[in-house]
Hints:
By secondary structure, this protein is an alpha+beta fold. It has 5 helices and 11 strands; from the N terminus they run αββββααββαββββαβ.
Amino acid sequence: TPAPPPPTIEEFIGTEVDGVYTNKYFKFRLTEPEDYEFVESQSAEMMSRAGIDKVKGENRSTNKRLDEAAAKQSTLFGWMMLPRGSLNNAVLEGHVLKQVPGVTANMALLASTNLMTATPSFKLEKTLGNVTFGKRAFAGSTIAANFNGMKFKIDTYVLMVRGYSLHFAVTYYDDEGKKKMTDLLRTIEFLK
């Protein structure tokens, strides 16, 4: 049997129309419950890389690993609670990373967490265990960040789909931001 054709860019990255993000390749949909700002893949990728550059420290080896990890992941989207540049904003980002066979969601989460916490700005606050969204169990963790006096948290949820680790990162400054972005993630529906 011939292999199926590779996905189109649109199928892989997904599309957003009228507050509904659909990803045909990874087979899920998110529905925006409020009027948040959707950030398409290319802009979300640039923002993610800028954030990585800001947290780099003195350790060249860790900085190199951060750059290598960023080069291997694809950013699917971002959603912001408030317009770009707003103080105390909250963000939901979706990323994917191709994995070798046998890698589990817990293994992918551990690798991501270890890389982030190797920088001085991030510290593992807690492991969340399995967290259910859309009737699927995600591996989860919370990282506390203190970057130049700004304190925020990142809840990361990972699921394996089609040989990729699918990462959803909720970045927030307060409980309201966490709730709103987590509620957005709770709208996830997995497609057949």
